[in-house]
Amino acid sequence: MFPGHWPKRLFAYLVGLFVFLGSGELFSADFVRLKNGQVVRGKIILEDEEKVLIAENDEYVRFLDKDLVAQVSYEKGKQNVGTPTLDKKGTPQKVSDVPQGHVETGPPNMYGPSPGSSNGNGADTSIEVIHEVVTDFIWRGLSFSGEIANRRDNESYRAMTVVPSYQPTVTFNTPLKGFQVQFWGNFQLTDRNDRDNDGRFQLYPGGPGPAYPGQGSSGSLSPFSAPSPDTLNSACPYDTQNNFMAGNPTTGSTCGGDVPGFKKEQNGMKRSDGLFYAFYYNFEKTSWGTFTAGIWFYNTFQKSSAYLSPALGGFNSPAAQGVSGANNPSTQITRLAWQEYFFFWKLPFLQWVNPTISFYTQFSQENAGLMAGKNYLSLTMGHEFFEGNFFRILPQVNVGYAMSNNIVDNRYGIQDVTSTITFFFGKFFVKAADVWRPNLYMYDTDNYYGATGGYVNSTSKDGRIVDPGKVNGPANQLVLDFINTSTTIPDQLRQSVRESYLLQKIPAHLVWFSVGFSQNF
Known about the structure:
Blueprint: H1 6-20, E1 30-34, E2 39-47, E3 51-55, E4 61-65, E5 69-73, E6 126-134, E7 138-139, E8 142-143, H2 146-152, E9 165-166, E10 169-173, E11 179-188, E12 201-202, H3 231-245, E13 261-262, E14 274-282, E15 290-300, E16 337-346, E17 356-362, H4 366-369, E18 375-382, E19 391-403, E20 412-425, E21 428-436, H5 446-449, E22 464-466, H6 474-485, H7 491-502, E23 503-505, E24 509-520
Antiparallel strand pairs: 1-2, 1-5, 2-3, 3-4, 6-9, 6-10, 6-24, 7-8, 9-11, 10-11, 11-14, 12-13, 14-15, 15-16, 16-17, 17-18, 18-19, 19-20, 20-21, 21-24, 22-23
């Protein structure tokens, strides 16, 4: 779907766009943007707390009440270049109507939390709100919606999965100058409810049991033998099936009063709902650049004891491959709640592309401390073209480097190169993003994807992972049972044959789109 040369072409296109449109003459005039969206261009003669006087030509000077002004921008090299000018209500004055902070778009769904368009005004409180609908919740190269939907629907992982969510951002610019509070949420709009995706006759959701009538009975491709230590729970659905097939509609002798059936797994997209809480302080600009420091928390609304499970690498071995039983026992991609400290440094040079270095350190202990101590270092760059116009273009790129993807795998490398291009139409915007994952070994682990269908990925350096479309259902189960029991397949080749059927390449590119609009209060 996306040839290997495609990201190079996109990069070349963006560079060409920067060069072609990079003339300072395009952004040389003063302008005032009113709250109704109108832009007045000319030469600003006077600005104070009550009014702005702007000469639109040699013969006409226009008076603008400051209460009607949303933004004041001066010609490069003049007053307050790069510094927000606030009205007495603290209205943000960033060029883009969408808060960008340190060149991020739609915080924190790309890289992490990002400040709003002002730095706290030291007077009254102002509020910035972004409403955005995205096709997939992808953050730092990690898919928190699309890949979960693939597992839920028994589909192969692919570059683009449409599972839309509403992602609002609310930023409070507090009376304390430089201090901001931000809330960012993800709320899935489709497929919110749980469904039975393994099709097994089982005692509990995700548990072992027949995947097709007759599986495990005498004469089937895979005669059942209950694995230890879960013998009774495993035997119950098989014994009950045998009773029904023999014309005796009773539960098995090992069920102890429990009734097996077709259970819904915990896979509804509502489990991706969550809320970020971010607190950060923006320091005054210095000759060294602009610095921001803070802390953020993320909390999911749908909680399960599975979130507390230890890392798979801590106890699973390749020998666990193919064991009849648990359906996707790992939920390592999910989070109960997690926290990070962060530090941003907007560099004082190459200001045309707004280079910003960001550093995040995770200190929370969810999933038995799987991600504790993980560090993420990123460089973001971007520039807004046609500044001050109704129509504007904002290309951006983020390169993120992870220092220890988790405490079990402990891998280092570039985690994502995320490129976005946003088209603004006043307060409305449309965005497209490509997420390139150059080092697939950062993702080639069951501690990210989970042991889908109970099958452990024994080779974590080949860029392949268990295909959710090859695990569940009678057809897949018949093939896997045959591989597991056939005497025509030598034991030393059995695992490689199984993996040739089960595994797929990890998508190196993820693509998503979004639409939205912003408001200031």
